[in-house]
Structures are given as structure tokens and as C-alpha cells.
Amino acid sequence: xxMRTATVVDALPKAELHLHLEGSIRPETAVExxxxxxxxxxxxxxxxxxxxxxxxxxxxxxxxVTSYLRDPExxxxxxxxxxxxxxRQNVVYAEITISAGxxxxxxxxxxxxxxxxxxxxxxxxxxxxxxxWIFDAARQFGAEAASEVxxxxxxxSRSGVIAFGMGGDELAFPTVNFRxxxxxxxxxxxxxxxxxxxxxxxxxxxxxxxxxxAERIGHGIAVMHDASLATSLANRHVVLENCISSNxxxxxxxxxxxxxxxxxxxxxxxxxxxxxxxxTLSTDDPAMFHTDLLTxxxxxxxxxxxxxxxxxxxxxxxxxxxxxxxxxxxxLENFRAATKSAGLV
Length: 345
Description:
It is built from 16 helices and 8 strands. It is an alpha/beta fold. The longest helix is centred in the first third of the chain and has 17 residues, at 72-88. The two termini are 30 Å apart.
């Protein structure tokens, strides 16, 4: 992680909504996982693998590091490591995405893995952290594979799975192909999220909302190109989950701006907020993008966001969560009390 400047958000209770469990595997943890399975790796080797400038390179690195996740104990380990990071940053609530589609493709028991994940996250050490779980289908695996993930998510909804989503290669297969999977998830009471407008255009975001019923959009930076879509999404209370470092590392920002050397200064977060979009801030795959949530807020501040805008961004992550209304209200009250106690309002 790069050096960062502290922000007013650092000491406050926080929520994070766009966070992939498997993307949180730090190099040291990858070395430990590989060793469990008889493979010798070095931190330098893993760090080198986590160096890419396009989405295809990221996907290859993701496939590689997750190949060392082979049994429930491996998933328990990475869950404990992520929980430790979140607690250190005063994250009190996280909605964490699990690549259930990858587990199924590798013929693993999703239920056994998820049991290990849930038990690790609920240990006494992490009592200050609450987690909700999102099962994610990989778009490039196709519609039937996505439906299998949706069915699996529905079966585990009483065990803490709160939502169904889809990530992976945004340009693979027409959106309409996946409608049955999303319809089934919704009919079973799951909330709906979808990656869109990361490397795809504004139309991809529109399709995710209108065809799949997405309530939150993973990334959605393509909305920067369509002011009328931004207004429409805001009116429908659709939230854009922005992830600054991710968009730079995957080349998504370069693609959206047409600038091969696109940097943090080119990110549309501030523009989206100024035009009324509902936006949250997250890390996406923090280990693979060399970041954490405190760093993302520091980057947001570097875009010129005021103190009140940073607080608005942090509060939106509680407001946009899929928690039951009473529990959401309690977390919002705790956040507002903390800001008042810190003399920020």
C-alpha cells in the first residue's frame, strides 16, 4: 500500500459493501496457503503476480491465487485475516462477496466452505464486526452456472447469505441471458447486486438495473458518460459502489476515460457525487489492488471531496446496506453519534 494522508473518516465506525473475500488474500497469506498444499512461494513472487494494468491480467491473477483455496480450512484462514484487517480499520459492518461460482466450478462443497467462513467471522475475537454475505456468479461461466449459484445462495439464505450478484468478465454474454438466475434469487428473498459499467458502457448499467433488477451496481463508473442515466439511477435509489484503486489497477478507468495513463485524479467519484448519484466507497479486492478502506478514503479526499462529502460517503455505506431497517438505523445512529462526539458536525 502507498503512503496515505489521514482523513476524518479514519477513526469513525465504517461499513464496506463491495469487498471480495478471495481478493483479500495478502501475499503473506498466499504463501501460507500454498505451503499447506506443498507449494513453495515467496512474498515477492505473489507480489509480482499482483501487478497488472488490465482486467484480463487481474482475472488471471485471481484464478491463480484462488487455486490455493482447496478446503474449508483455507477459507477460514482468509476470513480470519480479512476480519483482522477490517477490525483494525474500525469497520463495524461488511457485506462480503464470496465467489461461489468458482467453488462450484472446482467441484467444492459451497456449504462446507461457507460454514467455515461464517464460523471464522463470528469468533469472539471479531465480536465488533458484523458481516453479511453475497454469493457471486462469474459472468464468463455462463447462464446455467449463474443459476446454480443463485439456487445455492437461496438454500443458504437462512445461514447469512443476504444477496446474489454477478462479477467477472462484464463483456461476456448478453445480460438478458442471466435474467432467470436473478429472478430466482429475488423470488427467494435475496437482494440483488451486479458488476456493471466497470469496463462496459452506460448501457451495461442500465441493463443490470432494468433487466436484472440490480439495487446496487458494482463500480458503475461508466455513468460518468450519461447524466440522464445518473439522474434516473438516483431517482430509483440505485447505488454505485465505487472502488478507486481497483479502477486504476484493472485499466477500467483508462478504458472509460480513453487515457492510457489515467490516474486517481481522473476518477469520476467527485463528479458522480456532485451530480447527485448515490455512491459508496470500497476496496473491491484490497490485497490484489494494494489498498485498504482507509487508503480509499484518502484517495477520495485527494479528489477534492470536502469533510462533509467524506462523511456523506461514509454514511451512505450504512444507508445502502442490505441490513434490516431496525439494525441499519442503529448503525446509522452510532455513526452520527461518533461524528458528533468527534466534533465533526
